[in-house]
Specification:
The chain is α+β, with helices and mostly antiparallel strands and 359 residues long. Helices cover 31% and strands 16% of the residues. A hairpin with a 4-residue loop joins strand 1 and strand 2.
Length: 359
């Protein structure tokens, strides 16, 4: 195994224990990053070993392809997964993603990775049953590789830089593919202007997902009302973005009714609201008029006590319908979908989509 501290070990178990001692793990065993394995990982990409894939400007840190490859090896990736890992690193390196704040905040965001395009099938990224759960190597190891890069290259270590109050299991690994064939709309990346034959990753600083259960509603309004209610729960209500991943059962109902992506976004934005009085009663407006998570400047002049007229002010999730990203994935049966809020109690960071380049 070679790294900043070279270690020569012939016993595999000793090599794994050496990785623990070096502090390179997420708590689970890792594959020791031997020079041969790291070289093979880099060779599976379009980058030279010294090429910088990620720059973190807050602390002036950089992650080269070789460093990223070492962490991909430790995560258990195959070389054909590495283009996805590299694209995801480039995406979280976008300055608007505010990676340092995301990594250090008490909010405990996970880096959620959604994959679109031909590479999803080519390398076996799962998009069906148990979409966000265990059991699929590409999903698990690609997501884990990013977490190990944050830990080993950017020092996002729990209790040190990473100050997550509680965190959630998605911080181990959170990667999935969109079920494009089941979607009643264009694939997510195509809706952004990419062509169907391009492959992309979309990254999100995600709070833990909320299950949205609805087996009974036959019409879009009833179905989407359940989603809107979940999205407007005071526990996560803010002016941040949203990701809704519709299960195929729900997606088919919306498609059969002829609802477009834009119609669904508009309906959810219009109905995922609470009154300003609710927001105040729920403790979302702090003393001295510090509004936690909401953008209209006129609210900043008020106090946390309910005032006349507050029941007539509507507070939406997000700032516009385009703040709500829609994807499809999961098992073919079951009325269980998911809503993911973005990290932060304020405007939060955008979803970033990056093309995946392959050799």
């Amino acid at each position: 195994m070679t790294s900043s501290r070279d270690v020569e070990l012939t016993d595999p178990w000793q090599a794994i224990e050496a990785c623990y001692e070096a502090g390179w793990t997420d708590g689970l065993p890792v594959v020791p990053p031997t020079e041969a394995l790291v070289d093979a990982m880099v060779a599976g990409s379009v980058w030279d070993a010294d090429e910088v894939l990620l720059r973190e400007p807050a602390r002036g840190l950089e992650v080269s392809a070789r460093k990223a490859a070492a962490n991909a090896v430790m995560a258990g990736c195959l070389p054909e997964y590495f283009p996805v890992v590299g694209a995801a690193l480039a995406a979280i390196g976008d300055p608007t993603f505010e990676l340092h704040a995301v990594s250090a905040s008490t909010g405990g965001a996970a880096i959620l990775i959604a994959v679109n395009g031909p590479i999803r099938d080519e390398i076996g990224i799962h998009c069906k049953e148990n979409l966000f759960g265990p059991g699929f190597r590409a999903n698990a190891t690609i997501g884990r590789a990013l977490r190990l890069v944050l830990r080993n290259c950017l020092a996002a270590i729990p209790g040190k830089l990473d100050k997550s109050t509680q965190g959630w299991a998605g911080k181990y690994a959170m990667c999935f593919g969109e079920d494009e064939a089941t979607s009643p709309w264009d694939p997510y990346h195509v809706s952004l202007g990419y062509s169907p034959d391009q492959s992309t990753v979309t990254v999100m600083a995600a709070e833990s997902g909320h299950n949205v259960l609805n087996h009974a509603s036959p019409d879009p309004e009833g179905l989407l009302g359940t989603f809107a209610d979940t999205m407007s729960a005071l526990g996560s209500l803010s002016s941040g973005r949203s990701l809704v991943v519709f299960a195929p059962e729900h997606a088919r109902k919306l498609g059969a009714a002829g609802w477009s992506r834009a119609q669904v976004q508009e309906y959810l934005f219009t109905h995922a609201t609470r009154t300003y009085a609710d927001v105040k009663r729920g403790g979302k407006v702090e003393a001295a008029g510090n509004v936690t998570g909401f953008h209209p400047t006129q609210w900043m002049e008020t106090d946390p006590q309910v005032q006349p007229g507050d029941d007539n002010i509507s507070v939406p999730r997000g700032t516009c319908p385009d703040d709500i990203a829609l994807m499809v994935g999961g098992g073919d049966a079951g009325g269980h979908s998911s809503f993911f809020p973005t990290w932060s109690r304020d405007r939060s960071v955008p979803l970033i989509t990056q093309e995946i380049l392959t050799p």
